[in-house]
Amino acid sequence: MYLVELNGSAMVAVKLRGPTHLQKTEVLLLLLAVTASSLRSGAMALSVPARRLSTKLFPSLLLPASSTSSSSSTISQSTDTSSWFLSQFGSASFLRPYSTNSTADQMNLIKLLRERTSAPIKDVKAALVLSNWDIEEAQKELRKKGKVMASKKSSRTAAEGLLALAQSSTKTALIELNCETDFVARNDIFQHLALSLAKKALLVDNSSQHVSGAFHVGPESLEEMTLNLEHPKISGETTVHNAITEVAAMMGENVKLRRGYVMPASSQGLISTYLHTSPQPGLGRIAGILSLEVDDGKTQVDALQRVGSELAMHVVAAKPLFLTKELVSSDALENEREILKSQAEASGKSQMAIDKMVEGRLRKYFEEVVLMEQKFIMNDAMNVKAVLDNLSKEVGSSVRAVNFLRMEVGEGIARQEADASEPVAQAA
Q1: I need a surface site. Which of 19, 48, 333, 358 has the fewest CB within 10 A?
Q2: What is the pLDDT of residue 292?
């Protein structure tokens, strides 16, 4: 094992696997090249088979042009190679064999493994001690321990997290990835995983069960799909299930994919989205999605996008439950009617007056829960239906809202977990 420090800051561990017959000078020079390569690729530790240590490891992009004429001349020009390396990484750079007897080296390996895995320092040190300070074996040990701990924590309530959104030319996907604390939700690894899962949801077959225009994507639809996480601290090809388990192990919390929905776009229209409390593009705690359809496919897209974005924001703020009055469920309508009737009868007025009171309050109810009847949040002098009527006049073609979806992180978890996968979504 060799440790290389560059400019007193960047530390790289390079491990040689197997016997080598190269001269000491050659090994040092080759390690410099390997180290430089690992830094360019973002790696913090590297394990290299000794049989691969040859002059061929010197790519031309790492050496001066005059040093790459042949393999033999490359080794002989150690001064040029060393000078180039020092010019790239500074005179404060050094390379030396790693020693388990050196406290400084042990601390450096702890730092490296901590940066690679984000595991607690006490677990990192324990894994290194158990593996005799072999960083690769220690990382494997941490993964094994993490999976066991993740399994034990899987029953704990996870009501925090993020919504992640991904779009293609034909549909929009929205997933909810949960964790236990807001601290983990702010972690870049957790956020990277959420965005990756949203992109995977776009690939789910549309033959899944449809729910009012948006089809449901449950965890079981994604967990066996292949996922390639391109993140400095968690990369490589794995399954969705294993990726979630590994992130849960790294975070030390219960992490789970709770639900997802995909909304297909109309052949003549577009889907507008809005994410509230967004830490970065594509992520948020509350999401609003609205699908608009237009009769003329050549209509001005800019006008549709402008109004669509405003209405998606309206969906988040106004919390509609239904798209139109006709789509209000009979159960919800009858339940509301009974409540209003009971309240009106308490006034002691005549039956005719009571009936008028109930109908008036029902209109108020529609204005509260029906998207098309709600007062527009950007201009409460008109309702959403009037906004679309004005848009139709502006673009010269009839524009309709055909679907909408509103989701919020953690909604329903404390009340009834079984019904938590049902968001508000209605279609004409």
Answers
A1: 19
A2: 94
